[in-house]
Amino acid sequence: MNINPNTVSYPPHFSDLKREIASNYPDFEARISKAWKEVIEELATATANIQQGGPSYIPQVDFKDLDNLTAAKINEIKRRGCIVIKDIVEDGKAIAWKESLRELVRVNPEVDGFPVDNKQLFDLYWTKAQVQARADPNFLKANIWLNNLYQDKSGKKSEGVDLSVPLAYADRFRIRKPGFRLETFPPHIDGGTIERWEDPALRKCFEDILTGNWRQHDPYDLKGRLDARSSMYGRPNQSTVFRTFQGWLSLSETGPTEGTLGLFPDVLLSNAYIILRPFFKPLVPAGSPDILDPKSWGIDLESPNFPGLVPIGGGFAGPYPTPFLHPHLFLEKTMTPVPKVYPGDAVFWHCDMIHSVEKEHLGKEDSTVMYIPAVPYTVQNFNYVERQRECFLKGQRPPDFPKGRSEAAVVGVGKESDIGSDLGRRAMGFPVAESAA
Ligand SMILES: [Fe+2]
């Protein structure tokens, strides 16, 4: 997305929203000013560490070792907000899925995809390979493990959630060709745009930041997540479900510079900075050498600006942090490519994470992935899955995605019988035999 921050204007009620938030928390201005300075200082240190670590800063774990990780490793994964899980699916199975997707788009040249004249991101959700992958027992086991990184910080058992029951969220797949430049996915955050501030439930997730106690912020606290409305404006392509982690399963060998994913691997710090940013404005010109100094920033409760949000389709997209708007994130240094993955490896990133897609693919092979997040059972999520199941049975696109051509007539579309496990059937909202329930 091409963003010119100077041309973005926001509705006047956004300044009311800022003042409403400020009035909810005692000593708001003093507390967030202190937090802002601390977060900026920590970002400088984190930037040096991330840059030094490079791709290996992103934790990597073998699927078979998931249940035997040390507490230190789990803490590292949670702080960095991302993980590569290797060998979730056997190589042969992943490669067969890749070949079936290639064959499917070859024999169905009319299917929708982007870019239209050289399709690589396909508007297909129900191919046999996707249906099978979402129901894969190992994949769902990894989802359960990821979902269980969340808990209610108060120690109470949350009602209306079962982290041991994974749900399937149907999304697209891509077959990215080498040499193709892609400008479409600069650093951004999904799973809520203005809703992060505007929706009272989603805002609760960031309350410790808004009270100035940003170090206590727990991105894995279930409070707020279960009832959050992450899509208040009904914009297509905006997820309405609570995904603990977004993810993709790689069906090919892909490494840095080969069109892979980029991540800002410190979800605590990026959350703190992103949530505080609208309440501050620079007091010096953007190009000033002093722009990084916290003293160069003042409180902004007057303007309706939420820097990085982009009005689109009656709602908003983003946040899209940029070096211009969010200089302390040092995005040129901190956006870290995922280390090399092989068929059957998957990468998962926390739903609040800043992520991007490399513009260039300088490799020699297709980079093929299926987008499959980790989604726990919650009342809201299950309601979505029930509607999604009906779309599946009719070959229609899932509810969160733009309406379009049916997949019912696509050669190679998946059927209910392709869901090969009870865990998978339940994830798709289908009944399972009593003994398996
Ligand atoms: Fe995204």
From TrEMBL:
Matching InterPro entries: Gig2-like (IPR010856), IPNS-like_sf (IPR027443)
Protein name from the UniProt record: DUF1479-domain-containing protein
Organism: Macrolepiota fuliginosa MF-IS2
